Amino acid sequence: MTSPTPLRIDFVSDVACPWCAVGLASLQQALAQLDGAVRADIHLQPFELNPQMAAAGEDAGEHIMRKYGIDEARMDANRAAIRERAAALGFAYNVHRGSRVWNTFDAHRLLHWAALRDDARALALKQALLRAYFSDGENVSDPDVLVRIAGDTGLDAGEARRVLDSGEYADEVRAQERRFQQAGIHSVPATIVNGTHLISGGQPPEVFERALREIAEQAAGSGGVREAR
After folding, report:
1. What does the pLDDT read at residue 121?
2. Are strands 197-200 and 38-46 parallel, antiparallel or unpaired?
């Protein structure tokens, strides 16, 4: 019996990125389809869409329309498309008029801390944060919310509170953000496989599955990050 091919997957994303939620769900569905063919080691990497976002947050609709230069009709159409894609993956996208966008830096610090302890728990925390933000409309910059979610995913809530209160891992998160930006990652989600193959965007599961299967078969070598087809 052939052993599964090990793949390192760096998933670069933001908690406040709807296509990142879609992309992560698609990636996981693809990996389930590839069960036995690959052994994936997923590393969550930080990216902030809005690093200057104030603590009070901002109306999500106003923010999106200003940032991307679109009108309300286009924004509503975009949200409908995301809602449809998310629903097909079993993810509830409930962003609506009146929703807010929040600063996500502390969420990334918490994810970094979780990954140092257990990659599987970090992945569970990431999924819970995405659900909290996009499905439940929670403020993922609120320390109380972050601590509760950490505890709900099996992490030590007291230690999570200490990390958030201390400002710990801020330098490490900033360094990782710079690392991937310097590697050419300027939009998310970005899925980097074995440090060499880039799958851009919230692709459908079949696209992830095909790309991962091809990469595994090729036993991807070294070199610069390149687009996976």
Report:
1. 94
2. unpaired
Kindly report the length of the chain.
229
Q: Are strands 190-193 and 197-200 parallel, antiparallel or unpaired?
A: antiparallel
**How many angstroms separate the CA atoms of 144 and 120, rounded?**
22
User: How many other CB atoms are there within 10 angstroms of residue 42's CB atom?
Assistant: 20
Question: Hey, how many other C-beta atoms are within 10 angstroms of the C-beta on 114?
Answer: 26
Q: What gap in Å lies between CA 142 and CA 105, rounded to an integer?
A: 11
Condensed to tens digits (0 to 9), the pLDDT of residues 10-60 reads: 999 999 999 999 999 999 999 999 988 999 999 999 999 999 999 889 999
Phi, psi of 42, deg, nearest 5 = -90, 125
Give the CA dihedral 209, 212, 216, 220, nearest 10 degrees. 160
Cα–Cα distance measured from residue 28 to residue 68, given in angstroms and rounded to the nearest whole number: 29
Residues of the chain scoring pLDDT < 70: 1, 219-229
pLDDT of residue 229: 45
Residue at token pair 């052994």 = 39
Query: Which of 115, 172, 108 shows the shortest CA–CA distance to 140?
Result: 108
Residue 92: Cβ within 10 Å count: 12
- Which residues neighbour 120 within 8 Å (Cβ) at sequence distance 6 or greater? none
Question: Please, which contacts does 76-83 make with residues 24 or more away whose CB atoms are closer than 8 Å?
Answer: 82/18, 82/19, 82/22
What is the predicted pLDDT for the residue at 89? 97
